[in-house]
Each structure stands twice: as structure tokens, then as C-alpha cells.
Amino acid sequence: MSESTPGSRPRWFEDYVPGSVHELGSIAVNGEEMLAFAERFDPQSYHVDPQAAAQTHFGGLIASGWHTGSMMMRLFALAYLSPESSLGSPGIATMRWPQPVRPGDTLRVRVTVEHARVSQSRPDRGIIQSLIEVTNQNGEIVMTANPTNLVRCRPV
User: Fold this and answer.
1) Among 151, 114, 156, which residue's Cα sits nearest to residue 13?
2) Would you tell me the crossing angle of helices 65-79 and 31-41 to the nearest 10 degrees?
3) Domains: count for the chain
4) Cα angle vertex 68, ends 65, 74, to 5°?
5) Which of 70, 141, 145, 150 is paired with 134 by a 20 to 30 Å CA distance?
6) % helix / strand / coil in the chain, to the nearest 5?
7) In a 10 Å sphere around its CB, with 0-12 CB exposed, 13-18 middle and 19+ buried, how is residue 51 labelled?
């Protein structure tokens, strides 16, 4: 897996400004990793069998959406979340895969902060809702997600 990410720095709740856009870098889709993931976790024919996949409407092997999500998550964890402040996530409202991901693709991840508010019950942290967009080398959106993250406020 080859990837590039911007330099990470501590990021606190106050740094996640609604409307801000964060480019998280890129990651290459390795065909062997894609196949190994699918064989272990999503063994549908269009993910694991090149001959069968060629006969589907996809016309060839495609990555499992869960593999695409895992590649996105690597960049999200390394370049968007901060180990000093990240408190996990209560979930993802939506996740979509509008275009297939194929071996050799290069994926880029962009995150837009949609909403950010301080928790009413725990004012030492905030709740952030984001839009994640994953695009391929052609600029086509191959995945979107709307996660919620809990993040510590900057220490005073």
C-alpha cells in the first residue's frame, strides 16, 4: 500500500471549523491487498474471481466497499483525527459507494466539517459531523460517508 498524507499536528475541537475542507492525501489500491481483503471478509464473486467478475455488469474485479472504507479510514485516522483529542465515534449516518474501485486506482480523501458543537452534557468535548468524499484518479466520487466524531476541546 503506498500513500501520502499531509503532516499531522495536534488538532482540537476548536480546529474543526464548520465549512472547512481538509485534503487527507492519497492511497493506491493494491490488487493483491484488495483480493486478500475480499477473500477474507467479502468473498463475493466480483471481488474474488476475475473470470466471474468479467461476466458481471462491473466487467472485472472491484474492491469491496468495506475495503474502500478501510483505506479511507487509514487516511482519516492519520491526517484528520488527532491522537491527543480523538474520543471515538458513535457511528456513521450514511455510507455510499456510487462508483466501483479497481486495482491500480489512486484514491484521494477530502473531509468537509459540516457541523460542530460543544457537548451539553460534557463541555470538555465537542461533537463533529463531517462529509467524507473519496475520489479516484479521474476525480470520480467512489465513496461518501457522514461520520460523527467526539473530540476533546483544547486544554486551557
Assistant:
1) 151
2) 110
3) 1
4) 140
5) 150
6) 25, 35, 40
7) exposed
Residue 76's CATH number = 3.10.129.10
CB-based contacts of 152, cutoff 8 Å, min separation 6: 12, 13, 84, 85, 86, 87, 124, 125
Give the span between the Cα atoms of 83 and 51, in whole angstroms.
43
Q: What is the DSSP letter of 86?
A: B
Task: Give the whole-angstrom CA distance, residue 130 versus residue 149.
Answer: 8
Q: Which three cell numbers stand for residue 95?
A: 455510507
Question: What are the C-alpha distances in Å from 44 to residues 36, 52, 87, 96, 103?
Answer: 12, 10, 34, 18, 16
Q: What is the pTM of this model?
A: 0.92
For residue 153 the three cell numbers come to: 476541546
Return the SS3 of 91.
strand
- Quick: pLDDT tens for 59-93: 999 999 999 999 999 999 999 999 999 999 999 99
Task: Give the domain range for residue 76.
Answer: 3-152
Q: Are the beta carbons of 147 and 91 closer than 8 angstroms?
A: yes
